[in-house]
Automatic annotation (TrEMBL):
Keyword Ion transport: yes
GO cellular component: voltage-gated sodium channel complex
TM helices/strands, residue ranges: 12-35, 55-76, 149-168
Membrane topology: Multi-pass membrane protein
Lineage: Eukaryota, Sar, Alveolata, Perkinsozoa, Perkinsea
One example GO MF annotation: voltage-gated sodium channel activity
InterPro entries listed in its UniProt record: Ion_trans_dom (IPR005821), VGCC_Ca_Na (IPR043203), Volt_channel_dom_sf (IPR027359)
Domain (Ion transport) ranges: 16-173
Gene3D superfamilies cross-referenced by the UniProt entry: 1.10.287.70, Voltage-gated potassium channels. Chain C (1.20.120.350)
Gene source species: Perkinsus marinus (strain ATCC 50983 / TXsc)
Domain of life: Eukaryota
The name this protein goes by in its record: Voltage-dependent L-type calcium channel, putative
Amino acid sequence: RDGRVRRFCSSIADAPWFDNFIIACIAVSSALMALDSPLHDPTSGLARFLDVTNTLFTFIFLVEMLIKWIAFGVVLNKGAYWRDSWNILDGVVVIVSVVDLLPMLPDVSVLKTLRMLRALRPLRVISRNPNLRLVVNTLFRILPELCNLLIVGGLFFLIFGLFGLSYFKGKFYTCQ
């Protein structure tokens, strides 16, 4: 259960340098995704560079996921990888990125939709920063109250919009 490989993977997964390395990879990967455009010629140097770096970062994130699987377990252990909601987000993004790289898959609209999920990569930083986690968890906790506030605010906008419309209708000059 606590073999050498698991202890080695645990020492890597728990190391601060590993987290910092993954955060740096996420930042660089996100910046490179921002450079990507469907208007680029697929044979251009930039498009090839972006494809190679996307493959490299997907491989790095896949290795990170496998290290965490070995270190913490996949599902059955108490602190297993798939039992943490933030790891679920990380895992889904990694799996979508790996599926996107499979060359035998046709270029269909479902895969294009899956490719859009790669845009969630920057959200993986949240899972590594306790302060950001606290902010996001707090936002999710207050979401029902926030919805009520948005509804009341929307009603005020509607009321004053209708008031302004009825009061100022026809009062301003228009272009002929």
